[in-house]
Amino acid sequence: QTNDPNLKSRILIWKAEAIKTVNSNADAIQILLNVTKDLTIHDTIQYEANFNIGMLYYRESKIYDATNAFLTAKELSKKIYGQDHRTYISCLNNLGQMYKEQAKYKDAEITFLEAKNLQFKNNKGLELQYAKICNNLGDVYCALNKFDKAEELYQVSLHIKERTSGRNSKDYSKTLYNLAKYYDALGKFNLALTTIDSACLAYRNSEDLDLLKMKDLKSIIYIHHEKYTDAEKLLLDLLETRKKINQEESSEYALSLMNIG
């Protein structure tokens, strides 16, 4: 027992962390929300609680609630650490992701641009975090049909990830995946296919869910470019794999069935 509100709140945050590990996100969120109601606690604890609430809401696909939590965390992190600190930049990246999920692309663009500029200024653009921000901003520019800007950012992200993580890393392959979608949208079939094939090389386990996502895109590229025999063969393979790993109730399984039809 303690009468120190900061220590009490810290203990509650630890409790929420423990509950979260057993997939009780709703209980963890409620504990953290109770922490934020105590206006006497330090800003650092308020920040940590709000940031964790945002992450938990995101896990639950409650994007609107996650956005509000990340907005609060962003303002607190700026107050505590200043805008040049990596904590503030991380909050910007998370907030931009929430805007992107809601198709609020102008808000996402403004937020990712601020994160990108701050990250570049403070780390000379060489860290993996900068590459991830560039990748996210590239996605936004694709959605806004600013394709030249999108490709430039994807290439920057690829260059950094190749140097820091290697061509066979999952980080590298995720940017290739986005680049393949970009080439497909522009009707560049050969480039899209070559790029998604390169993205698949990072995965050794044929049942890896990220690899299946890559192959989903490859099947769509085939369909868009009227390679129906290749698409059918790949989709049947995907269906068999998802049956094997008990994913028959997934939306991806249903989509593969629909695309075959």
Secondary structure: elements and pairs:
Blueprint (H helix, E strand, L loop, with lengths): L4 H16 L4 H12 L6 H17 L3 H19 L4 H16 L3 H19 L4 H16 L3 H18 L5 H16 L3 H12 L8 H16 L3 H17 L6 H10 L1
Query: What would you call the shape?
Result: globular
Largest sheet: none
Taking the alpha carbons of the first and last residues, their distance comes to 63 Å
Task: Give the strand content.
Answer: under 5%
SSE pattern, N- to C-terminal:
HHHHHHHHHHHHH
Structural class: mainly alpha
The number of strands is 0
What's the alpha carbon Rg, rounded to whole Å?
Answer: 21 Å
Task: List low-pLDDT spans.
Answer: none
Total number of helices: 13
**What portion of residues is helical?**
over 70%
Q: Output mean pLDDT.
A: 88
Protein architecture, described:
This protein has 261 residues and is mainly α. It has 13 helices and no strands. α6 runs antiparallel to α7, α9 runs antiparallel to α10 and α10 runs antiparallel to α11. The longest helix is centred in the N-terminal third of the chain and has 19 residues. It is globular. The mean pLDDT is 88.
In short:
The protein is mainly alpha-helical and 261 residues long.
